[in-house]
Amino acid sequence: ASPKGNCRATSLASTSRKTEHRMKLNAPQLGKQLKEELAPVYVVSGDDPLLCGEACDLIRQACRAAGSEERQVFDVDRSFDWAQLYEASHSLSLFAQKRLLELRLPSGKPGDAGAKALLAYLEHPAEDTTLLISLPKLDGSTQRSKWAKALIDHADSRFVQIWPIEPQQLPTWIRDRLAQSGLQASPDAVELLSARVEGNLLAAAQEIEKLKLYCPQGQLTLDTVQQVVADSARFDIFHLSDAMLQGQPQHALRMLQGLRGEGVEAPVVLWAVSRELRSLTDMAQQQARGIPLDKVFSSQRPPVWDKRKPLLRGALQRHPADAWERWLNAAQTVDEQIKGQAPGSPWDGLARILVEAAGARLPL
Fold first, then answer.
1. How confident is the model at residue 102 (pLDDT cuts 50, 70, 90)?
2. Contacts from 91-94 at CB under 8 Å and sequence distance 24+?
3. Residue 197 backbone phi and psi in degrees, to 5
4. Rounded to whole angstroms, how far apart are CA atoms 143 and 276?
5. Given CA atoms 164, 166, 170, 176 in this order, what sign does their dihedral have?
6. Are 172 and 141 contacting, i.e. CB atoms less than 8 angstroms apart?
7. 30 close to 160: Cβ distance less than 8 angstroms
8. At 70, which helix (H) or strand (E)?
9. CA 171 to chain CA centroid, nearest Å
10. Are 74 and 89 in contact (CB under 8 A)?
11. Which one of 19, 125, 304, 321 has the lowest number of neighbouring Cβ atoms within 10 Å?
12. CA 29 vs CA 4, 32, 171: distances in Å
């Protein structure tokens, strides 16, 4: 091949990568892309209602700015007739030349009829129409399906992946959000606000709007947060297990107290913790027999997904196999306490398991 041919091949590959990059967007990239052009199809995928809602709002605003005055919304359930999408996209607009169609799939699974309808739409997108599709986060198997790959990779589609805000990112997110609202906060005020709204970005946004009324000078202090902001933290049992695996005993204990305060029953918490302990005990025992950890991960059913491997690797490095066996036996004692067959509080037993497995040293 000639040098000129090689340059041309490199140029085409570079162009292909740039095109693919434009098709897949994160939340910060979306605003910039909307200023450049309005794509025929947008797909917003994620599990956080605030971040997904704000991304959809940006797309709606761009559509209005481009002249879309008509909007139709379709909520997809099992009884949804996918012919409605074809009819809406091919019918003449009564009120405006441009319009917005919204398709909301809370299950993230359109079924066979929906998959065919989406593929057919992508082949011939309606003129002067923007299609906005809202989906939850798609798992790996769903992303490999034909319809999902088409939504992600099609030239006329822009796929917006909304990633959750991790606990360590939350203070920065809150500080930026406060600044956007014209508020400057002290570090301790940001820390307390982060603690009180942890796991609930919608509550964080609402509290920030409320704080604006109490800070006419734009200065947010710790005292103001203590007086104004309720403890809006929302926890779930899976994040509790993650705190244990991440080696965060204080965080795990606070989450346990939060779950108890929200009325979550001890058997539900025990189920999640025991499930994690059984997996870790099995993996630790295999590792102790000399089996490589990557092979241990792949032998699990289902196999450990990539994002979770560093979390489990750190936990397994922190404790030997007999420690995980001991905590699994302690979980059995908690089960007996719940059933009234053993003395003691099951909540105290759960707390001890969590903080010890997270790395805290407690007296026997």
1. very high
2. 93/128, 94/70
3. -115, 15
4. 26
5. negative
6. no
7. yes
8. strand 68-75
9. 17
10. no
11. 19
12. 34, 5, 21
pLDDT tens digits, 218-251: 899 888 888 888 665 556 777 888 889 999 999 8
DSSP conformation class of 127:
T
Q: What pLDDT shows up at residue 230?
A: 67
99 strand-pairing partners = 70, 129
Q: How is residue 140 written in tokens?
A: 């790996």
Q: pLDDT class for 206, splitting at 50, 70, 90?
A: confident
Among the listed residues 128, 157, 118, the one whose alpha carbon sits nearest the alpha carbon of residue 63: 128
Q: What is the pTM of this model?
A: 0.61
φ/ψ of residue 185, rounded to 5: -115, 145
| Residue 296 CB coordination number (10 Å) | 20
pLDDT number for residue 284: 94
| Residues facing 172 on adjacent strands | none
Orientation angle between helical segments 249-261 and 346-357, nearest 10 degrees: 150
First CA to last CA across the chain, in angstroms?
Answer: 73
Q: Which DSSP letter does residue 124 get? A: S
199: which DSSP letter?
T
Q: 292 with 346: CB under 8 angstroms? A: no
**DSSP secondary structure code for residue 319 in this structure:** S
Residue 273: both structure tokens together: 């913790």
Task: Find out whether 43 and 159 touch, Cβ atoms under 8 Å.
Answer: yes
Is the pLDDT confidence value at 18 over 90? Answer: no
Please report the sign of the dihedral spanned by the C-alpha atoms of residue 271, residue 273, residue 279, residue 285: negative
Q: Which two tokens stand for residue 119?
A: 């593929």
Say what the pLDDT of residue 173 is: 93
What whole-number distance in Å separates Cα of residue 285 and Cα of residue 125? 55
**Which pLDDT score is estimated for 233?**
59
The structure tokens 């092979």 sit at 295
